[in-house]
Amino acid sequence: MPFKVRKISSYEWPVKVQVPHNGRFKEETFTAVFKKIARSAFNDLLEQGDDALVQDIVLGWKGIVDEDGEQIEFSEETLREFADDPFFLRGLINSFTESLTGAQAKN
Question: Residue 25: in which H helix or E strand, if any?
């Protein structure tokens, strides 16, 4: 089957967040909408740090709820707030890396 070039600007990808719970980790998930970027742009963003990377690659999400089970809508402000959480940030970056490499990213 030939490789088909697709003109897409974004894609959905599952994000697994390992959250501390009773001395262990439990996995919680959501779906991120990632911006499709070139390899060179990815490398440039890596040099700028996690904040720049996250602000550039995340366009939205599905499946993030508050403690009452209410959906939390995506906004750049909420993304900045959530990206300050090291567990959320690690899950997000690991999932984006996995989406690029096709393999589970290792911590």
Answer: strand 24-35
